[in-house]
Amino acid sequence: MEISISREKVENGRKAALKGSEAIKAAIAKKGFANIIVATGASQFEMLSELVRADIDWSKVTAFHLDEYIGIPITHPASFRKYLKERFVDEVKKLKVFNYVDGENPDPVKECERLGKLIGKVEIDVAFVGIGENGHLAFNDPPADFETEKAYIVVDLDEACRKQQLGEGWFKTMADVPKNAISMGIRQIMKSKVIICTVPDARKAEAVKNTVKGSITNKVPASILKNHQACHLFLDEPAASLLK
């Protein structure tokens, strides 16, 4: 795992976007196209705002949605589909394909199967991810399933994860935060050639310390990233404060 620490989150996002855009362009140069995974959440704001400005031929890029709440309409302020459409898809405009996770599908298991078939046909060149306050990777809360080969799974969101979503301002009350979601599985994320993990803010410092300094365990799902051959962890100083 390669770690980069920046003084501020804006600089951190810029560095992460640069590294990610280089990997995307390298894939396009080598084979004529690229496949990527895109995450959401407050941790991705600065990175995405830079990534969409990168000099990339987006018409050659296919993207996959990392995770989504079950039962949240696309019009809801917390919808990850809404987030990605507004902050990524609409900004790059000429994107070849974006494969959204439909959290409104009345059969979430079938939605997982649909997405699994799509992503199973390709090799992911770059995955953009973050780390949750509870150490989660995507919506794989602890103890995460490190063994499933399913590309997408239905998961239960633990209280710490739901409190984070409330604290970030996506929901008005704890009762409003969904208890279930569709998430890309750990093994599917780890299949990516390059992983760009962007983690700002002091509230993530404990999770970062446990990820970097602790053992690899499903109780800290993001710790699995240490097993990846090309994972780049981008931190601002507050997020990295417990690593010193």
Polypeptide structure, described:
This protein is of the alpha/beta class. The chain has one domain (2-43, 53-187, 197-238): Rossmann fold, CATH 3.40.50.1360. It has helices at residues 9-31, 45-51, 80-92, 108-119, 159-167, 186-190, 205-213; strands at 2-6, 34-38, 61-65, 67-69, 97-99, 126-129, 152-156, 180-184, 194-199, 231-236. Strand 9 (194-199), helix 7 (205-213) and strand 10 (231-236) form a beta-alpha-beta unit. Helix 1 (9-31) crosses helix 2. The radius of gyration is 16 Å and the shape is globular. The two termini are 17 Å apart. The model has no long low-confidence stretch (mean pLDDT 96).
Keywords for this entry:
244 residues, alpha/beta, Rossmann fold, 7-stranded parallel beta sheet, 3-stranded antiparallel beta sheet
Short recap of the structure:
The chain has 244 residues and is of the alpha/beta class.
Total discrete domains? 1
Mean pLDDT: 96
The share of residues in extended strands comes to 15-25%
* Tally of alpha and pi helices: 7
Largest β-sheet summary? 7 strands, parallel
* Helix share bin: 25-40%
